[in-house]
UniProtKB/TrEMBL annotation:
Keywords: Membrane, Transmembrane, Transmembrane helix. GO terms for biological process: lipid biosynthetic process. GO terms for cellular component: membrane. The chain crosses the membrane at residues 39-59, 65-87, 99-118, 162-181, 202-219, 231-253. The lineage of its organism: Bacteria, Pseudomonadati, Bacteroidota, Cytophagia, Cytophagales. This is Acyl-CoA desaturase.
Length: 370
């Protein structure tokens, strides 16, 4: 697809007014948009929990299902740590000093993920062109799942609402062991074209995978004297837990019956304001729950994250109220589902996408599918 740009002329001033109010919040409360003491305490908490769980795994005290549960808990704790540290760092949201964010973004690599390719796929493609088919890889991940009305509908998609959770369980394995290598062969990310990926990043990618295999498979195997079948089984259980955790946090916030998708015209123009589109393409869940906000690294308050990714997630809980009020003033939709309802609505929309060519209200897709 050619370069795509948003035509901001149709906007109604929502994003400008919202940005003014967000800035005023930080000025009036004398707060930085970056991290604070509570955020640092949160990092310390999850670092201690994650290291403690890994130490328990290697302690030789646990075996069987108890060890499997420890692997599962370690994986989820590590994932929360990635959301808390690496995700914010990749958006320059921890510190005003770029080198600190750059350094902390390598926490992705501790989880077996290339921070370089995460930045390209997530920051440049997904965040800029959210729910724009052909530009946002997150809604074009696999032919097994139809996540947008512009994707070709196949017969087996009628059952995707039934098998999607099983695919989500494999999501972490795919990201760590396959996705980065696939991205290595990709040269278009959003509007950015990269003819050749830096050799340094390729070596870092290889080292990342070897390091992850070393401390997650080899060290436990030999310290605990496990068979290959046992350690790979524990490893699979860990990844399945991570996959379900991130699958049901990251996918539904853009794929429900109320999520908006838009296509550019023949000149590559999306005739809508970027801020307004982000609001309509994204939904929140349990936005009033501080506990859910804490556990998900603020990703349950996903609207504020997409509108202002450079703001540290420790502030999202308070800022979401400003979005709610401003959207109401401008008669724009702000959606906040309960924790259970967002999963139901997501699976319901997957079912609709599997049964209908265009279950959305956007007539653009009727033209592309005809």
């Amino acid at each position: 697809m050619e370069r795509v740009a948003f035509d901001h002329s149709p906007n109604n001033g929502f994003f400008k007014i919202l940005s003014h109010r967000i800035d005023a919040y930080f000025i009036e409360n004398k707060r930085s948009k970056k991290s604070n003491g509570l955020y640092l305490a949160k990092i310390l908490f999850y670092v201690v929990v994650t290291i403690s769980l890994y130490a328990a795994i290697l302690s030789k005290v646990f075996g069987g299902w108890a060890l499997a549960i420890l692997f599962l808990l370690f994986g989820v704790s590590m994932t929360i740590l990635l959301f808390t540290v690496a995700h914010d760092a990749s958006h320059q949201a921890i510190s005003k000093r770029p080198w600190i964010n750059r350094l902390l973004s390598y926490v992705w690599n501790l989880g077996g993920i290339s921070s370089y390719f995460w930045g390209l796929k997530h920051n440049i493609a997904h965040h800029t062109f959210t729910n724009i088919p052909g530009k946002d890889d997150d809604i074009d991940q696999s032919k097994l799942l139809r996540l947008n009305p512009n994707a070709k509908r196949r017969g087996f998609h009628r059952f995707q609402h039934l098998y999607a959770p099983f695919l989500y369980a494999l999501l972490s394995i795919n990201i760590v062991y396959f996705k980065d290598f696939k991205l290595l062969l990709q040269h278009q990310f959003g509007n950015k074209t990269i003819d050749r990926h830096p050799r340094k990043e390729i070596w870092i990618l290889v080292a990342t995978k070897l390091f992850f295999i070393g401390y997650m498979i080899l060290i436990p195997k030999f310290v605990l004297n496990l068979t290959w079948l046992e350690i790979l089984g524990y490893h699979l259980i860990m990844h399945m837990g991570i996959g379900l955790f991130i699958g049901f946090i990251l996918v539904p916030v853009h794929v429900t019956g109320e999520s908006t998708y838009r296509l550019p015209d023949w000149n590559g123009k999306v005739h809508y304001g970027w801020g307004e589109h982000q609001l309509e393409a994204t939904v929140d869940f349990a936005a009033n729950s501080y506990l859910v906000n804490w556990v998900t690294g603020g990703l349950n308050t996903h609207v504020i994250h997409h509108l202002y990714p450079g703001i540290n997630h420790i502030h999202y809980y308070q800022l979401t109220r400003i979005i709610q009020e401003t959207a109401l003033e401008f008669n724009l939709p702000y959606r906040n589902y309960s924790l259970g309802k967002i999963f139901i609505e997501h699976l319901r929309f997957l079912k609709a996408l599997g049964e209908e060519d265009n279950p959305t209200q956007n007539e653009q897709f009727n033209l592309t599918l005809s």
